[in-house]
Amino acid sequence: MEFGKVKDSSKVDFSMGTVPDHTTKLLKRLPFSTEKTNVYFGCTGWGMKEWVGKYYPPKTKTKEYLYHYSRQFSTIELNTTHYRIPNPQTIQNWYELAEKNFKFAPKIPQSISHSNDLGAYGNQIDLFCSSIIGLKEKLGTSFLQLPPNFSPNRMAILEKFLSKFPTDEIPLAIEIRQEDWFKEGPYFQLLLNLLTSHNVGTVITDVAGRRDVLHLGLTTSCAMVRFVGNALALSDYERVDEWIELLLGWMKEGLREVYFFSHQPDNILSPEMCIYFIEQLERKSDLRFSVKTKPIDDGQMTLF
């Protein structure tokens, strides 16, 4: 992930910042539930040959990667959909290979996110939604990553897109990057209001070089976190510790779902942050995970 990347992260202020009033008020409005929060954790791809013999069994074939990935992780930031809309056979293959409780989180195609109208006046939204709905109960929250030049003066275009996207069938979250959204003024609050009115979530990105995108604004009962580490530096673990405390607090207030995506510079090291994340969640709460990322022990896949 090149966005927000810095050569030296040792002098970056990684403090979390202040939770917006919008988030606090939204959590207070959420209905009380005795059910535990659904927490999904994963990486940005399953095609890492370096995981064979470590997280996948020895001699695992490429076509078997997803099968084993979905038994070590509970979600995937599905970036492949950003470049092309999967055909029905691909969707069916993914569905059949993935573990029964696994969730795919598809990224909206660039043919939509990078078009002038966000696909509102073409057929790309329909084509994308018709494709990924084939994942059925394994379809999690999709996300739209707006390009770096998508500024607040295009909010009407975003609203048009939201009015066309079938959020009642396909959960959606929005990631913003353009700096003007975060400057002093009404824009960020207007965005939160807009997303709340459409029952669309936010993507919160924690990355060294752009601390403003760590906005902590929630608009639904789901938090989607893209955590970008720095090669397992000490600060990576300290930041995850802060996320654990924040998320557990939100869960007590009614947060129903969490997606936590681990990024590392080459993504080979991404599982280590998933391991630490779920270990700390279990240590500090009554949450327990049936699928846990863990290196292979004595040549066997260890899941417990």
Average of per-residue pLDDT values: 94
Total domain count:
2
CATH domain topology of the largest domain: TIM Barrel
- Proportion of helical residues: 25-40%
- Taking pLDDT < 50 over at least 5 consecutive residues as the criterion, the unreliable ranges are 298-304
H/E series: HEHEHEHHEHEHEEHEH
**Residue share in β-strands:** 5-15%
What's the end-to-end separation, in Å? 31 Å
Structural class: alpha/beta
Enumerate how many helices there are, as a single number: 9
- Give the CATH class of the largest domain: Alpha Beta
Would you identify the CATH architecture of the largest domain?
A: Alpha-Beta Barrel
Strand order of the largest sheet: 3-2-1-8-7-6-5-4
CATH superfamily of the largest domain, please? Protein of unknown function UPF0759
Pfam families: DUF72 (PF01904)
Protein name: DUF72 domain-containing protein
Organism: uncultured Aureispira sp
